[in-house]
Structures are given as structure tokens and as C-alpha cells.
Amino acid sequence: MIEPCVSSAEPRFQLDYPINESDFLAAGESASKTKKALQQLGLKPEVVKNSAIIVYEAAMNIVIHATSGRLKVIIVRDEVVIRAEDTGPGIPDIELAMQEGYSTAPHEIREMGFGAGMGLANMKHCSDELIVESEPGVGTILEARIHLGQKESPREIR
Fold first, then answer.
1. Smallest Cα–Cα separation from 120: which of 105, 132, 138?
2. Half-sphere exposure of 69 (CA within 13 A, CB side)
3. Whose CA is closest to 57, among 90, 34, 77?
4. Count of beta carbons in the 10 Å neighbourhood of residue 96
5. Distances (CA, A) of 43 to 39, 55, 146
6. Three-class SS of residue 157?
7. 126 and 144 in contact (C-beta within 8 Å)?
8. Average pLDDT over residues 36-63
9. Contact 56/48 with Cβ under 8 angstroms?
10. How far apart are alpha carbons 89 and 106 in whole angstroms?
11. Which of helix, strand or coil describes residue 77?
């Protein structure tokens, strides 16, 4: 059983997106909505950009590789936490999958211009911390964290 890795702290803000196999529109919309929401909260452009990239890459991994999944963007204390959980084939070798250019995307996905093997590498580059847990034949949980500076606290939501 894959154990959750997100902290139990009370979220200050949360977005929740269901993502299904082959739903490319949902992947794009989740990134776009996340970007807009974080901008409205007044977060720094770098944090907004990195969060949107991570959301897009995580959602695309679900769309391409899993049968279904859920993506959450949570602001807890002084960080943005992006958590993706899916049901699918899992990742047999996480270290190999983290290498730039490594891809298990099917040929038809690559023909569409996706599946270049940069998703996990991009998420690692854009986050301060990235945890990937996977069980082959069951699914994957990914959690990326972007730390906010002391002056980076989001505006109060009303």
C-alpha cells in the first residue's frame, strides 16, 4: 500500500482536480486554473510559474500513463504542495524514470508531441522537494513542494 506523504497540517488553500486517462483538456485546464488562482493569491511569479509547470506535467503523466487520478494543489504553512495520485501501471524504476529523456509513453502519444521524457525531470527542477512513490500494477503518488519565503505568504482568502 502506498502511504500518503502530505503533511497533516490544515490547508490554507486547496484546489482539487480529477484527471482521467486520455483527458488532455483536463491537464491543460488544471494548470491554467492553478496559475490564475495562485496569481490571485499574490504569490511571486516564479512560484506561480513553477507550480503551473508541475501541475501540468503531473496531470499529463496521469493522462498518458494512468486510468484515473486526482491532483491537488494545497497551500500549507509556508509552502505550495502539489500532490498527484493515480491508479495505473506504476513506475517500476523511479530512478530511471527521473532521467531526462526517458519515456514509456506509447508511440501514438509521442506522435502527438507528448511523452518526451521530461515530465519528472521538469517537476524536480521546478520544486524544492519532490517525492515519488510507486507500486507497479497499483499506481503512483507524487508530491512536489515549493517553499514560500517569509514574505511570500498568500493573501487572506475571503
1. 132
2. 34
3. 34
4. 10
5. 6, 16, 11
6. coil
7. yes
8. 97
9. no
10. 13
11. coil
Q: Which residues pair with 145 in a beta bridge?
A: 81, 129
Mean pLDDT over 2-26 rounds to 78
Q: What are phi and psi of 131, to 5 degrees?
A: -120, 130
Cα-trace Rg, the chain? 15
pLDDT on residue 2: 41
Closest C-alpha among 64, 59, 135, 62 to residue 94: 135
Query: How is the chain split into domains, by residue range?
Result: 18-152
- pLDDT recorded at residue 142: 97
Return the C-alpha cell found at 20: 482521467
- 82-136 pLDDT, tens digit per residue, is 999 999 999 999 999 999 998 989 888 888 888 888 899 999 999 999 999 999 9
Instruction: Please give the single-letter amino acid code of residue 60.
Output: M
CATH of domain 18-152: 3.30.565.10
Taking 70 as the threshold, does the pLDDT of residue 157 lie above it? no
pLDDT tens for residues 69-78? 999 999 988 9
Alpha-carbon span 11 to 64, nearest angstrom: 29
